[in-house]
Specification:
NADH Oxidase; about 50% helix; four-stranded antiparallel sheet
Length: about 260
Amino acid sequence: MNPIIGVLMKRRSVRAYEEKEISAEVRAEILQATLRAPTAGNMMLYSIVEVTDQKIKDRLAVSCDNQPFIARAPMVWLFLADYQRWFDYFRACGVEAVCDQKQIPMRKPEEGDLFLACCDALIAAQNAVIAAESFGIGSCYIGDIMEQYEIHRELFGLPQYTFPIGLLVFGYPTPEQMQRPYTKRFAEKFILFENRYRRLDGQELKQMFAENEDRFSKGPGREGITNFGQAMYFRKFDSEFSVEMSRSVRMILERWLR
């Protein structure tokens, strides 16, 4: 098997780490691979905050939906969608004065700019994940960094045109983590379409989630919940953390567009 494909196929989320530091040399190689990620217009619309302060890690372990392993991770990187740097550069270059001369308003970062910056940040984050995996270092994405915006804005000093799109934790996996079975992915026929999007009908949805439904039926019963779809709705989609994430993201968007 192609070695790069091999790294991609064996990757899994790792939430328990050996007490082993990531060397400065390995960290530097992971960072360089991260910075080589594809980026819109070579603008690198992201920033990375490396969290080395244990007190901040401890706080993140609580604010990111109470996940203690965050505090124990040897390396923690926060990926920010970042248009603040470019907007500051535009101002420093006198763009505002030129706009005044042209009698046009100076445009501020808008929704499209945010989405583009989020793409840049997540592409870079995935480069970091795969680079780390190539060194035998596990990782886990923490999407919960999008929750509790008020706390995280203060904790990291986030200016208006930054968005905390993803937190990544890294570490050498414990033997138990290495022995965990891989989680299955949905069959490609449910994910890959040709030329046009296609909504799945009831029978296809039943096929897509058949294994999940089977496992659910063999698990412990839940009051009022009769199938996997209902369980996922209340456990994930309508959960307390998901509702908080939407509230928090709404706050970020309001500040971004202010």
